[in-house]
């Protein structure tokens, strides 16, 4: 049976859950899993519901029928087909661990996405990507050609229909224009526990400050470098006996996992913007399951 | 404004959420926070809702009014006053770290319970307990007097109105009879990552097996020793350079926290039995907050 | 048999370990546990050795006999009696969780220190402290009386012979003068994962930035606020559903443990300054062990 | 300059460190990094030293010259060339995440080993392996052909010169004979926190018991299934909302990392057997560092 995800954001008030769940019950829909959050500080209400349609109502019926509820509470809401694989464009420079990790998760079905292409300013991963039957685009970026390079990038985004851009250790800063155009649709992995150690060489900064844990942060990209809303973070313990170059090695696993979890949350419509903060609902039961590679 | 917690367990079917939330909306109730879980394997549905009554409906109105919904879905359900402080009886033998930890959390309001007494088979903590203005009961347990000791314990439970017994490193095994009578109302902390290292001297067992992490487990007590439903677990890393007696020291923090979290979950009606497993919903926003001691 | 700790810092060169261990062997000393670190970047060598004297050599013999080795490598070195309990002065304002935690660890012997007094700018913990038979000093601090207050503090430090000051959530900033005079002998617990969220209200800052983990940092106090060398850090996971005041509750356990671990490291002479960074050697086997309270 | 690793095990007594470090100093060797452990319970002493030869002494000189020290303390000891890449044979069945992870770490130089072949009882990963220019051996195993299959395996081990066999989710049980012949040279990853959930389907067992953390264990293989000495373990938190098949997904990252860390420890001669337990010394500074793939 087909399942759908409904995401709702609106001003918090009495009766929202009753209206939504009452509507779904009337339409013969079965709620598999539901998460909600009432932000008492901002007055915003967030909800994510996974449901199946059991009595034959089509998604069009449901969407149309929901209009009065939507209007009554002035909702921002969307119905998503759970089977839809979001189109994702990966970008990478010279560090390939996140790319390798994402390709593997994609290949075994653990990350149900469609990778519509990989863009890189280097050629290091061309062979790997092409051998996965994924289009590889080399887009060199220099100070001189930056506008043209970005135009090329946007062309690839449009042609491929990419819904999400993932900066999997892509080391070029995107222009404000792209950040705005793709707002909420670009995820970056930064190799520090933000807001500490923004900018270049965060592991070196961490080493110099003498912290006892290093971290990684996945966040939406905004025009403010390393300041976008945080989706996921994690850390690893280090000691005095490790150097900044050891951090690079130790950090790989943390970066890969933090990025993968952030993408997982985004593609399943589990992330909501709440001002500059994010609401991230837990994964639906079963959504971690994956087929075996072979 | 007064707030309440509604807990519901029933067979999973369509329309439950709509019925509950519709009812609450009709009664002028505002849902602050809601968690649900649909166990596809057992077919059971679990829900916990925190709400306030905004239009003057009393808890009696609400409880009575809910009867038809309850019947329709054949629910096991309860309404709890969020301000009610559960009456808790602590039991301890010679290791006092969990007791000290719980007394502190209680004193600063982080664990909103009423400690109706402390029972011990030793006198070590009499002074500490009495100085907190909590009744201390010394109940010696020997092979010979076990039935009388247990009768004494049950008398204390009944007189004090204890709703929950917490075995905070109480080293005597309770009889099957008490386990059954107080089923789901006794929480024990075991100093291993169950199901490994049941029974006596788990740290010694852990040392001998050469594990690289030690743990603690908070569980409901059943007649089967160390086999009851698990509420919470955690671990700490150890190395070859630590001995079993070091584990005792390292384990104290883990035990204290695991037990405190399990009690927090229980007293806020966040724990549901699902066969031999537990469903533990997250804490309601704000429920961690506590006043400052002084 | 008595045991001693030898700590050594010097320029790294060939033959240091041979010289030290050869000397100890000649003196009939048995090495129980030894840690060393060669900082290839700064060229500094750090070593910590725990040993027992088995052939009757006194610590005076050993210290005197070691002079040639010390001179040959231009060492900064010290011999410490393992049984010596470092004299510690605790300072606290209105949050008492670290104080409670330290008092408990001290009481059961898990932190082998001598608490020579507790200084507070409030009266909240006077009773608790006095009931532990520890001198309590109320030293009010206002803008007007700051110099006098600090003079009073230094008087207490001198009279009590305090070797270490622990700021266990003491919310007044110490003067540069005291920081310098007591350099490397004041440990503070800051309730953030430094260098993020320095200064006031770190949990509020963390909430506003939307991080997914909160942390605590124990560091030596320097004239630069929250910039001193870090001894220990740890973090706890939080979600969108927790408020800044929930962080206060969740953070208590992290703060208490991070501070206790840092003090444990310091009093056992496991912490070395390496520029602005610290070398922290692991605890000696058995040093975690503690007697049972009673 | 070439660096070497010396590993020593012997009965604990006075003067061992002095003898070893004195010898190395005499030979013009510089100690980069040294770890030792004195097991007070078993009376065994363990040491691992990384050093460079600075005055021209060859490894043969050093080894020969060390004979008297070795004899004096009746040591089990070995000198290893740090540049030597241990020859490793990987074995895999149908779950490829550990294989993928190890191949990646190997490719970028993070695991300095020589993969001399991959053996599988399936064909799933033939293409992946062959594209890495690594010999792939399909060795089918049935009840009937088990002896022949094992003979084939041992033939591959001998021909390839494999020093270590890694069971990277290889689901066939090896015979006692092979376990004994390759004692201390076969590492397995088991997908549970041993000693809990030995044998088949550990994630299902974990689900049924209702634990709150799942784990993975890397251990040396012995004739006793899942009872060999543990090298490394780690865990991941799960909730009631995840099914056993979700555990499979969540567990992949834990398994991959635990296995990689265990192999890292083994190939750098950091693991010592201490009865049925292991001593695992920390990684030498810099040993995590790796080149970039390209």
Automatic annotation (TrEMBL), chains A, B, C, D:
<dbReference type="GO" id="GO:0006189">
    <property type="term" value="P:'de novo' IMP biosynthetic process"/>
</dbReference>
<feature type="active site">
    <location>
        <position position="226"/>
    </location>
</feature>
<dbReference type="InterPro" id="IPR002376">
    <property type="entry name" value="Formyl_transf_N"/>
</dbReference>
<keyword id="KW-0554">One-carbon metabolism</keyword>
<dbReference type="InterPro" id="IPR044074">
    <property type="entry name" value="PurU_ACT"/>
</dbReference>
<dbReference type="InterPro" id="IPR004810">
    <property type="entry name" value="PurU"/>
</dbReference>
<dbReference type="InterPro" id="IPR041729">
    <property type="entry name" value="Formyl-FH4-Hydrolase_C"/>
</dbReference>
<feature type="domain" description="ACT">
    <location>
        <begin position="5"/>
        <end position="84"/>
    </location>
</feature>
<comment type="pathway">
    <text>Purine metabolism; IMP biosynthesis via de novo pathway; formate from 10-formyl-5,6,7,8-tetrahydrofolate: step 1/1.</text>
</comment>
<comment type="similarity">
    <text>Belongs to the PurU family.</text>
</comment>
<protein>
    <recommendedName>
        <fullName>Formyltetrahydrofolate deformylase</fullName>
        <ecNumber>3.5.1.10</ecNumber>
    </recommendedName>
</protein>
<keyword id="KW-0658">Purine biosynthesis</keyword>
<dbReference type="GO" id="GO:0006730">
    <property type="term" value="P:one-carbon metabolic process"/>
</dbReference>
<dbReference type="InterPro" id="IPR045865">
    <property type="entry name" value="ACT-like_dom_sf"/>
</dbReference>
<keyword id="KW-0378">Hydrolase</keyword>
<comment type="function">
    <text>Catalyzes the hydrolysis of 10-formyltetrahydrofolate (formyl-FH4) to formate and tetrahydrofolate (FH4).</text>
</comment>
<dbReference type="InterPro" id="IPR002912">
    <property type="entry name" value="ACT_dom"/>
</dbReference>
<dbReference type="Pfam" id="PF00551">
    <property type="entry name" value="Formyl_trans_N"/>
</dbReference>
<dbReference type="InterPro" id="IPR036477">
    <property type="entry name" value="Formyl_transf_N_sf"/>
</dbReference>
<dbReference type="GO" id="GO:0008864">
    <property type="term" value="F:formyltetrahydrofolate deformylase activity"/>
</dbReference>
């Amino acid at each position: 049976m087909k399942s759908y995800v409904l995401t709702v954001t609106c001003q918090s008030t009495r009766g929202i859950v009753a209206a939504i769940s009452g509507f779904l019950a009337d339409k013969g829909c079965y709620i598999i899993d539901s998460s909600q959050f009432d932000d008492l500080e901002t007055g915003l209400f967030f909800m994510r519901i996974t449901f199946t349609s059991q009595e034959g109502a089509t998604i069009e019926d449901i969407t149309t029928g929901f209009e009065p509820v939507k209007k009554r509470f002035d909702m921002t809401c969307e119905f998503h087909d759970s089977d839809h694989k979001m189109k994702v464009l990966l970008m990478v420079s010279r560090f390939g661990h996140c790319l390798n990790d994402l390709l593997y998760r994609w290949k075994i079905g653990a990350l149900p996405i469609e990778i519509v292409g990989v863009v890189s300013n280097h050629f290091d991963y061309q062979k790997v990507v092409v051998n996965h039957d994924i289009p590889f685009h080399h887009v060199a970026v220099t100070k001189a050609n930056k506008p043209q390079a970005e135009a090329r990038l946007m062309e690839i985004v449009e042609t491929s229909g990419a819904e999400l851009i993932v900066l999997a250790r892509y080391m070029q800063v995107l222009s404000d224009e792209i950040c705005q155009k793709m707002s909420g649709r670009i995820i970056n992995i930064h190799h520090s526990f933000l807001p500490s150690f923004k900018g270049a060489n965060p592991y070196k900064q961490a080493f110099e400050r003498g912290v006892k844990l290093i971290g990684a942060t996945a966040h939406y990209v905004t025009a403010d470098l390393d300041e976008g809303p945080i989706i996921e973070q994690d850390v690893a313990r280090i000691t005095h006996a490790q150097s900044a170059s050891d951090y690079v090695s130790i950090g790989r696993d943390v970066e890969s996992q933090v990025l993968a979890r952030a993408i997982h949350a985004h593609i399943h419509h589990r992330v909501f913007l709440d001002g500059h903060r994010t609401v991230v609902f837990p994964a639906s039961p079963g959504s971690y399951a994956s087929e075996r590679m072979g």
